[in-house]
Design a protein that fits this description.
Length: 409
């Protein structure tokens, strides 16, 4: 007599079957992978948070010690008898903003991330819609960009992404008032992601007022000045608050897209996608890429000259009196002029250039951390480590692990 075993399964992430249908399951067991009909289906679906659990009973044509259900789908029969698989996947609609100023690298990157997500096993599918202000082809400097819809399509999306732009944010805001208005009027249920300078469009909509946000660290000061009601955090690589996800530089957009995938599906899907992309699901802060020492682009030539001396001799100790004597002013005048020119105090500047120098040594040399600390003027290894973490956002050892050059000696 044929061995037919009655089996029960509890499987996560299976979409709801709304109507009776011929059901099939893709099962994996020790003999391989095959498609099995769910005969005499006793099918019950129970919602449990984001995931769905399905329990059913069916007869297997062969005994199997270990069975894992990989997917489940309906089959519709046409008149010719051929079956068409209609996968029970949750379709997530993604609207991608496209304008003349868009960075093609940013645009292509985010679209590839979601297209690749469609190949990760699971009950999900991302449907991309490229959106311009008026639904017409975008005249980009590097060639025309075809779009699928205008901004009137955005309220029907599950996710809207504003990629990075080459034009400075304020100019893009001025050129695309309909995009800004559409972002402002989006239902709260729509998730929004900004990449790099794309944050300007969302900021102009007012949606970020009173909330934390980030952008490329070079643009953070300008964003904060233009929109003072936003709590700009330039050191952060990724910030999510109330369904608004902001990322730092252009490549940090990958982090934002992965976060959106996790938000719309589950952590396992996002983790698998990150593995396929050969990246971490959660990376460190943007501060590790930011120069911790202020620049010299200011009009005070004497302060700039002092900055140069402090940077070239950062391993030495300088008192405020010695610094003031270098530019022939009093200590009080030094502190006032230095702060006005650089936005920081002389002591803070020395600390910053020392840490900046130590970052370069950690990247290029195999010297022990205490030796590097001494080379930049710190005999106390603990004090050096504490300051490094404060300014960079991670320990010296962690920074070295992530940033050491392949040829480091």
């Amino acid at each position: 007599m044929e061995d037919r075993r009655h089996a029960h399964f509890a499987v996560g992430n299976v979409a709801v079957v709304e109507r009776p249908a011929d059901l099939f399951a893709v099962v994996r067991h020790r003999e391989g992978v095959e498609r099995q009909a769910i005969c005499r289906a006793c099918f019950h679906v129970v919602a449990m948070g984001v995931a769905m659990q399905a329990c059913w009973a069916f007869w297997l044509g062969a005994a199997a010690s270990t069975i894992v259900v990989m997917d489940i789908f309906e089959v519709d029969m046409d008149k010719s008898g051929a079956d068409h698989e209609v996968r029970n996947r949750r379709i997530h609609k993604v609207g991608v903003l496209v304008c003349e100023e868009v960075s093609l690298a940013s645009l292509g990157l985010l679209m590839d991330v979601f297209r690749m997500a469609n190949h990760v096993p699971g009950p999900h599918r991302f449907e991309l819609t490229r959106v311009s202000e008026d639904g017409e082809t975008v005249r980009h400097p590097d060639g025309d960009l075809r779009v699928d819809a205008g901004v009137e399509a955005l309220p029907g999306m599950d996710l809207v992404v504003a990629p990075s732009m080459w034009t400075l944010g304020p100019q893009a805001v001025k050129h695309h008032p309909r995009m800004v208005a559409a972002l402002r009027d989006l239902p709260d249920s729509v998730l929004v992601v900004t990449m790099c300078s794309g944050a300007y469009l969302l900021a102009a909509s007012g949606r970020l007022d009173g909330r934390r946000a980030t952008t490329h660290w070079l643009l953070a000061e300008g964003l904060q000045a233009r929109y003072p009601d936003i709590q700009v955090r330039p050191s952060e690589n990724l910030i999510e608050q109330d369904g608004l996800i902001c990322s730092g530089g252009s490549l940090a957009g990958v982090d934002a897209c992965l976060h959106a995938v996790q938000f719309l599906t589950n952590r396992d899907t996002a983790r698998s996608l990150a593995q396929w992309l050969v990246t971490d699901l959660h990376r460190g802060p943007q501060s590790r890429f930011m120069p911790v020492a202020g620049g010299r682009r200011h009009a005070d030539k004497e302060v700039a000259r002092l900055q140069g001396q402090l940077a070239s001799r950062c391993h030495e100790s300088f008192s405020l009196e010695e610094m003031a004597a270098t530019i022939h002013v009093s200590v009080r005048t030094l502190q006032r002029r230095f702060l006005a020119a650089t936005g920081t105090t002389p002591v803070q500047y020395v600390q910053a250039v020392r840490i900046e120098r130590s970052k370069a040594l950690l990247e290029s040399e195999r010297l022990p951390v205490p030796e590097i600390a001494a080379l930049v003027g710190y005999q106390d290894r603990v004090a050096f480590g504490r300051l490094f973490k404060k300014l960079v956002g991670m320990t010296p050892a962690a920074y070295r692990q992530q940033h050491r050059l392949p040829h480091a000696s």
